[in-house]
User: Fold this.
Amino acid sequence: MAVRQAELEIPAHTHEDQHKHEKLVIIAWSGDLDKVWPQMILATTGAAMGMPTTIFFTFWGLFSVVKDQVRITGENWMQKMMTVLDRPGMEHLKLGKMNFGGAGPAMMKHLGKQHGVASPNELLEIARELGVRLVPCQMTMDLLGLQPEDMIDGLEEPAGATSMLLEAQDAVTLFI
Amino acid sequence: MAVRQAELEIPAHTHEDQHKHEKLVIIAWSGDLDKVWPQMILATTGAAMGMPTTIFFTFWGLFSVVKDQVRITGENWMQKMMTVLDRPGMEHLKLGKMNFGGAGPAMMKHLGKQHGVASPNELLEIARELGVRLVPCQMTMDLLGLQPEDMIDGLEEPAGATSMLLEAQDAVTLFI
Amino acid sequence: MAVRQAELEIPAHTHEDQHKHEKLVIIAWSGDLDKVWPQMILATTGAAMGMPTTIFFTFWGLFSVVKDQVRITGENWMQKMMTVLDRPGMEHLKLGKMNFGGAGPAMMKHLGKQHGVASPNELLEIARELGVRLVPCQMTMDLLGLQPEDMIDGLEEPAGATSMLLEAQDAVTLFI
Assistant:
């Protein structure tokens, strides 16, 4: 996997350097491709720099960590409708603007590939390897009727706003 | 009011704990239901944890703290048009996506009710009770021609970006 | 230039005050007028308060610092299409909602002028004068095929996520 970001941007760091760095907490609220990309780029870059990094997936952002093969979820028609309208899974991300029925995201992914920028899915894999904590929001899972087996592997236990705000103490915290 | 968030997530804390917590500053920029909800959930959770919490309502976010019965505001036709197109008041929030003429927000509120998640309006009430400082942006009030009597009760004096950035020093600061 | 923000809100400060203030780092992700405005208001206010301030322009936000006369950029049809669909340059900002083919932004700019709020372009000029560091994202420039000569004057060298996160240590950091 040729990941330009890892090759070009991340400086060598020593054990000492790591102690100078704050934590990084990303509240991944959006599930749009053009927001998921910065969520993943910042999380992997932070972790590679030695920042203890956590992504808290909530609201539409939770769809990024639902298995791609999960199509319809939930126990009642409203939950089903939410997930049909906005198909979960990292392979089905849309753009917040200029989506054009999928042509926009395809173009953007193609440009990324041309320029050696890893896809969100590759970055999620790298995040896991770098030890980024991936935490799904319990409340959103309940609202959408998602079960643990609907989620991708490697996630931590679902948690709530309190856990997130505790983690945010003395951290760089971004709502994306 | 059965508020699941308050029941399940907020840990008991002592006076000592409070001193470990940073301030929480939320810049409430958006007036969409799916952003107002996290604004309110995070603010009430933070305050309940002992974080001194401030919400600064600006741009579209200011509409959340305009009285529900205020329909048309402003002194000139442009200000009037802005508020007619995007009706102010917490009861009239729209979704950033999947609004469907109000069906989306209705579904989401219904799901919230089913799962014991308090509505934004209930959370705003809890925020006031927990001592969250609710600060409207003076510049936005001027731009929209809003008067103090158009706003809900319990707000602090309108303030500007300087006050907000002073409050943001050594705080967890989120732009939502 | 009658800049109300500078006149009314920014307190006098001494050298001592400056040392009490944290850095301010704004990740300018959006290129919509209603997001660019708070990016610029917060950056100029922070700088005027004595906060060492950096704006990191990335994704759609990068378009704010492309020359207004640059219309079509890039080496291939996909890059060209991205910039034709979303014309770069501070004079061509759209609203995230209620754009109405440009009528919304025109109204909002007019309201701003009526109330003595500086335009984004004026604020960018003030930001430069106040020493705000304006940093374009290298990856976004590559993806859109933008060259240094396409960008406005006064920018720093393009940089990546690592530089941004290093700057974010002990700073107030906002993703807008």
Remarks:
- The beta strands of chain A are 23-28, 53-57, 133-136, 171-175.
- Residues 33-49 of chain A form the longest helix (17 residues).
- The two ends of chain A are 26 Å apart (CA to CA).
